[in-house]
Amino acid sequence: MSSESRPWHRDPENVIRLLTLVGGLVAFWLGLREFREEQRWKRLALFNEQLQAFEAEPAIGNALLMLDYHAPDVCVPAEAVRDPERRCTQVTDSLMVGALSSLLEGRILSHQEHQVIYALDRLLTALDRIDYLHEQGFLGAEVQHPTVAYWIQLIGDRRATTKPPAVKRRLCDYIREMKYVGALNLVAQYTPAQHRVEGCTLAR
Predict the structure, then answer these.
(1) How far apart are CA 195 and CA 120, in angstroms?
(2) Contact yes or no for 76/115 (Cβ under 8 A)
(3) For the chain, how far is it from start to end, CA to CA, in angstroms?
(4) What are phi and psi of 196, to 5 degrees?
(5) How many CA atoms lie less than 13 Å away from 75 in the CB half-sphere?
(6) What tens digit of pLDDT does each residue of 60-91 get?
(7) Is 73 helix (H, G, I), strand (E, B) or coil?
(8) Residue 74: in which H helix or E strand, if any?
(9) Cα separation of 155 and 197, whole Å?
């Protein structure tokens, strides 16, 4: 039988070409998967570094203390406030509500209220940045991170009971009115609607 009449799959040259093509495709797919996995781990490592940098910022650390504990003493660095008697503040729930209400109602902040608002703003700005990185494609599944979940739970999840509902509702009012859209996007991603604090949403 001539090579012209022989079925293609019985021609050794065709079989070799097919096996070479299949082998090349498999190698390409494995290489692509390995590359994507390597890139994912690199992004996760960079994201962990970013989160650690956020947590190392004194103001963000203070905001987390305020949200996670009852009436904690929070202090600012000496270079920020020279008077040692004004450096630390006990942040009660009433102080938090008063500080958030002062800005929403256009009243002048006291020194203690200013410390509260500054710390919360730094935390909310960090959340906005995380959402921006996700929206721009710099973060994929890495945005679903335990640290971010913990921050969001303190702010927008009713199941977290470290702060009374009134404090969390006022905080969510502040977030919405000050247009921390990224923070609200993350609340929506991490928190089921039935567990979300009232007001912690873009829609009113």
Answers:
(1) 22
(2) yes
(3) 80
(4) -75, 140
(5) 9
(6) 999 999 999 999 999 887 777 777 777 888 99
(7) strand
(8) strand 73-75
(9) 8
